[in-house]
Amino acid sequence: MAVVELDKKAYALGGHDDQETVGLAERYDPETRTWRAVANMPTARWYLAAVAYDGQIYAVGGADEDLSPLNAVECYHPGEDRWYPRSPMPTARGALTMVVLGDRLYALGGGALEGPLAITERYDPEADSWESAASMSLARCGIAATVADGQIYVMGGNGDGFISVADDSKLDLVERYDSRRDVWEQVASMPTARSHLAVVTLHTGV
Fold it and tell me: Are the CB atoms for 107 and 147 separated by under 8 Å?
């Protein structure tokens, strides 16, 4: 599933409940320590990515019950408790990651039928349109990403199919993206190679 924070509440989106892929959306309020069901995503999926931007949530990509990659993009308006379809991502993929940088949403890496991907695609919410950006140096899925000092950092992942847990496919690679130059560069690797991880920015550290 994907988890995203909006207005001091956490939203858990999609996933698999051991019986089927679901479009469930549930919201957690840390002040009251309670969960509440909100409108389900129109598209049931797992291995999706999600970000919050301008008071709304964007759920992107993922895979269906048969692990076929998806390009669906859906936008949740909390005031209306409703999802709206948006322009599909150009490349269907699951096990991708997303970040917000400036006024654009970046979809990074992931896996498709032909294997892991290195691609970067950038979404403009105002224009509801996608464009390509520079690809990462290595195709990988199950990655994590964050933004620090105006640049995107992508960490880890694996170079095999997006559900692979093989030890020899895990990566310690870290790449940094400069949107002004549309350039990726490698920085210091992680001490431990791993995939399907999480990363956050805290103050000045990643």
Answer: no
pLDDT of 169 reads: 83
What is the three-state SS of 25-70?
EEEEECCCCEEEECCCCCCCCECCEEEEECCEEEEECCECCCCCEC
Q: Give Cα separations from 13 to 59, 169, 197 (angstroms).
A: 8, 27, 17
pLDDT band at 202 (very low <50, low <70, confident <90, very high): confident
Residue 84: how many CA atoms within 13 Å on its side-chain side?
Answer: 13
Q: Are residues 4 and 73 in the same domain?
A: yes
- Please identify, among 88, 123, 156, the residue that sits at the C-terminal boundary of a domain: 88
Nearest to 48 by CA among 29, 63, 26: 63
**What percent of the chain shows pLDDT beyond 90?**
88
The alpha carbon of residue 41 and the mean position of all alpha carbons in its chain are separated, in whole angstroms, by 16
- Same domain? For 78 and 103 the reply is no
Which of 38, 66, 88 lies at the terminal end of a domain, its last residue? 88
Q: Which of 61, 151, 77 is nearest to 111 (CA)?
A: 61
How many domains are contained in the chain? 2
- Cα distances from 153 to residues 15, 74, 126, 174, 175, in angstroms, run 25, 25, 24, 7, 6
CATH of residue 183's domain is: 2.120.10.80
Domain ranges, residue 2: 1-88
Q: ∠ CA 24-26-29 to the nearest 5 degrees?
A: 175
